[in-house]
## 1
Amino acid sequence: MKSGFLIKLIFALALIAVLAAMLFDLFLAENINSIEGDFEQIGFVRNKNNTGPIKRLYAYNVSDTLWENIEKHANLLPHTKYGTTEVYYFLDVGETTIQLNLNNSQESLLGKENCVAHALKNGMGELHFSKYPKAY
């Protein structure tokens, strides 16, 4: 009788420990809002194709060129398998919004002098990050 109670107690304590570890990890995990750099979204567009590859375009205003933080930010943005996520980072463009268009090439954004970084996450989730990108 005592061994059955002891087994249940050990099992309950192990379950509580696992749940506590999961909650601890959940609340302390790095997320897009915990990264330094004052990232402000100034543009976003996504295709409405829910049956094939999804393409997302983002534009963000940043207050500083902390490359490690910008790359972390790009990695944490939503991504769909076989789709692409493309992000443009601009240094202190103010309160303006940037019009993004899925049909046209975004070369004009890369040529802007305040475009400090460009990130492209391809269909397999690999991130290609470039500092001070130039138009193709």
Note: The chain has a mean pLDDT of 83.
## 2
Amino acid sequence: MTDAPMTAGRTWGGIASVWALAVVGAVLVSVSSTGDLRFSLLALALAACCLVTFVIQLATTRKVGFIDRVGASIVGALVILGGTGLYLSIVALFGG
């Protein structure tokens, strides 16, 4: 095994794939569920994103930058799903 740095494409590809999973989860939860179940499903989608993050980042077998890559993936998914939760709360509050 070499200690050559990962290319930017591989680094951002793993991060962006988790973000894409979060967007897909947010859309599915928004469209297919109603009421308070939405927020439970958003939390479940975040848990799935966390698991997928670890699988993707551990599959790279690179130690250097692991925490940065995992942090970027999870924070991005949290922002996406949190924004969706905020949007759904506002819609529910104002009669959507």
Note: Residues 66-93 form the longest helix (28 residues).
## 3
Amino acid sequence: MSHRNASQAEPMRTGHQSAAHNRWLAAEIQDALDDPRPSLSLEEAMAAMEAEIDAVEHRSSIDRAPAEPPLPSKAPRRQ
């Protein structure tokens, strides 16, 4: 590949990636507009996200909780 072709390849690749992203985004937006389910208000969406975040944080805090100390053994000790 010549230097001229190489210098043109990256902008073309970037342009193709940008166009592909724009097509994907347009399809996602159209799917959302065509969705027959009722829309959520901002308050409902934020409440749902807060509940989900709280649940994840709660599970995460349980995973990081220190283990309970072991109970003392009642087995006789060797002397």
Note: The chain is about 70% helix and 0% strand.
## 4
Amino acid sequence: MDLATLRVFFQTAPFIDRAIARQAAENRTSRQIAALKDIQVAFAAATRARDVSQSALLNHQFHEQIGEMAQNPYLFAGLKRMLIDHTRLSQTFFNPQSLLGCGPRGQGYRPTRCNDCSH
């Protein structure tokens, strides 16, 4: 993702997120709320386990579930496109080593010692 695309992503995401969330709140079913809660519980477990890939995928599923709850095929199409890049970005966001400056992406500040490397 280049810088121009990243900029458009961050400009557009709040508009889609707000519209989807508002319609999801209006149109959701009890079954959809239960599914959303299940995803959130699994996400919390994945983040505690520091499972970066699973955290990113569950975060994707969480947002996709909210999109389905909105029952708006026009917004859902835009959300699904946005979630592709969102999930890609999440791989870095949910990786604690990216904040510590460890590994190939590492350029962050180092607030503590990393348990997985020599920092």
Note: The longest helix spans residues 3-27.
